């Protein structure tokens, strides 16, 4: 079902119940953009990948959150689902509320609108959100404001000595306004007098003059926005003390309600977090990052803090993209694009799990084509997960069906996030050290800046075909398809005047050294790729780590299985017919994109170190009750 | 009338005719946002203002361009108008086309949608655009691509030696595909065979195998996007040489047409520029900046290059906001907000000029309320301009009516752009040195970071009320309302342990010195405010300056009139009742906004110096015919 700010309040109790009683959840997001530029490199380490994602992608907005709850009925042996599509838009609810700026990628908006996404509904009826820090800040500000109001009503005009002299050209106007106010006060015809059409300076003069000439016990002046853009002064008759008090109470009530409403989607994320349920996503790194960054706390610079943050908020997640790239699925699934995966799982040897809507009108049928509606994609992801899980069960002796979310069979896939566009199955291991994907067959090559991909493939042609991943206009990583040729390359392609070839690992080591040197004088040209681990807040973190390791079971690396699949490529170099276009964008060396729309790189404010630790410490309180529920849930199989 | 990409091609001839036969044009833009943050300072110099605008505002998108053409009919003595609303959106027309990223401000989108702006129409039917540099680049790329196609059709499989070994897990799949292709080729039932559901690596393997096993004269394989996101291989039977040639010609024709269409709105701007007509706008600095940046060439870092660029593209512009802030209007117009201005000009002593639509359905009636539709605002601006101009004529002896765009009475207002939020009437003088607004009454004050506005007003209270303009959490500019007290401040508020007070001019001088020192080692903390004048391309520029000065008449500074109005404020400090909110945002010191949506600061690529000069040199050719037309037009009064 569609959820906007018009029905958000209504559905909350139902949603809360659905989440609590579910056996697992699936999520998906739609975004205003994906990449700020051609940033990722096919041989990025997980840490480099995270740093790039954080600096390049978090300024797009998650505009639709799909949530699908799945519930298993023991009696029927069937799963049912309920799907929610939240429209998300940070419409500022007051002048002091955050007014976020966010980035859009033209092709992404074009894609969404071509899929029927309703942007008018988004901007009109989207549900707002606040991070915990924003909410706290706003609550404090509101309290101060209300206090200030209480004080100001008792004291008035304390600094009339410092009033602005009225410029000659405005005296007539000011006198005229005073006459109008007098007229207004001397008869009861109107409830209020609107003084519109004056700029801020004139409004200030009027305000000042009124304070000097009129009795504040008989009248009240306030500023009001009259058509979103313009502000007018509004004069009303003074209220009795009792009426004034009542009005103030109503106003405070209204302000509190506004703020509660403004928490919006963030409260859904908090609910999901508190539930501790297994969360399924397809290629979900970007979704997870956006959800944390937008609704919880800005993504930390430190990669290890990021891992802590994810596992703290979502202790059990499973990425169906990662799962379907691994044994025993990888040989049977030729494309892990969600739609393709679903199609493949609909045929032999798989048995697609049928998941009916729990309630008419609150879900989907598999046959429906609503691809790229976040709720539908979440639903499809959940169905794929169940089908994959049951396949694992079918391989057991005796066969096991259904395989439920807490089955040990799922352990190798839990808390691992697939990395797109990186060679070999590379993933973020949220609860351990990342496995190092094989890079023995990869070389860092420098060459004249006139060289194109063709020159590199020629250079390496004695060793078979290669994968070229550009770094700068005069350097690239080159990966061999025939990995057994690596030593031969090092024996043959020694340094020349034209080019240089070195092992990938040596190059990475050298960069790390340079970066360590640079860090001392923080020169502006140092790359952001290797984010130095934040050293602050160590104490808080250590205590958190203890909590974290006690909740989340560390898993032994299943890297061996990834190693076997050494010749599969997540995203490979284009086929010749596609190459022309890719070549274009290479030879353009980014200038077209840069010229085009002002390629945006977003700087973050300094001084956020330790923000994550603070968030975790604060969040810890509100998610305190989770562990218990999680254990209860553990016992349902 | 609304113009989208559906009717854009059709209306071009009519539009061209309207522009050429018009007597002046009015423009207005709607944007996805205005400010990246609380950047502007009330005492910015025009150069500082430009630097901030350029670095902070140009990443928003102009999404609607309003153009209103005004034509005077000598026989009737009446003006008529025609209004166009162009929806503007840079939908990438191909994979190699620019895919701009742009910024949105939540409150701006909220505002637009509340005014009925249709974002679905924008993203679906918006008209694209290309700067001249982008267009040139794309034309070159297209030519290269077409050449590459011509070459590749003759030579095939030249590097099959470097083919990728097919991994074991894919052999069955590849064999299966070959069988399907054989089947397809051996009967005529289908026109094409779509091989869908394979990832890029598998597609590459298929492509490679097909090249090895099948005769390229009997079949053709290409990649096609099948649902915007996914790509499939499409196999077709080979064509006869003649058919192939014909198909290639059609394809080239189609590609050229696509590129022509992609120039879109930029061609309208070029038309306007070539016409050399007087262009009216209300508070038009932002409009002019966006139009140049988005449709012509990225705004130059150098302020003087910016002025050259504007006057070159639009040799005569008039800002009704500036005009109505100046003599003889300033005393009679208490708010220069467009709606207020229009209302004021509808009453005595003004005589609102009635401008009927030239054609039914192509314009507005004054009574209509379509505020913030760009075309309507442009129309209203033109009407205000005519009314202001006629008022000038009415003061002449004998009275002159109508006052037409080339009247000498308008000279004091030509090519001056009003600066919002800056104290005193501060403006950019496009064709001369900027006048320095009075700053004798302004002081740079430093103080403990705990201080708030109240502490500053207390400190200065002996000298009357003050205007406080924050710089950092521990410094601010403080302006006296009673400017005659300036010397007294310097005599009284000498340095103390707690605070320091120095003249505005001294502080600015000091900053400039520091900046000159910093420039040597380009440390990252140096502020961008004082953009150093670009020194490159001096030769080109000098030759341009000669051209420019011969076209545009330099105007003697009319600064004296601005000086007289020394006590008027463009944007003033809030009145007490409004202060709470302002104080909130001060005490927040930007953190809420920064946390909120990832406050975006956009870095520009280096190496653009001289881009403006290059643009001007190139544009010079295409606008070569302008001067003559401009002179012809001069003779119509």
TrEMBL record, chains A, B:
Q: Name one GO cellular component term.
A: nucleus
Give the matching Gene3D superfamilies. Answer: 3.30.70.330, Ribonuclease H-like superfamily/Ribonuclease H
Q: Where is the composition biased (Low complexity)?
A: 152-163
What residue spans carry the region label Disordered? 140-167, 239-258, 516-591
One Gene Ontology molecular-function label: RNA binding
GO aspect biological process, one term: priRNA 3'-end processing
Q: Which InterPro entries match?
A: CAF1_poly(A)_ribonucleases, Nucleotide-bd_a/b_plait_sf, PolyA-riboNase_RNA-binding, R3H_dom_sf, RBD_domain_sf, RNase_CAF1, RNaseH-like_sf, RNaseH_sf
Q: Which UniProt keywords apply?
A: Cytoplasm, Exonuclease, Hydrolase, Metal-binding, Nuclease, Nucleus, RNA-binding
A Pfam family that this protein carries is CAF1
The main place the protein resides is: cytoplasm
Comp. bias intervals (Polar residues): 546-561
Subcellular location(s) per record: Cytoplasm; Nucleus
Where in this chain does the record put each Poly(A)-specific ribonuclease RNA-binding domain? 432-508
Q: What family name appears in the similarity comment?
A: Belongs to the CAF1 family.
This chain belongs to the protein called Poly(A)-specific ribonuclease PARN
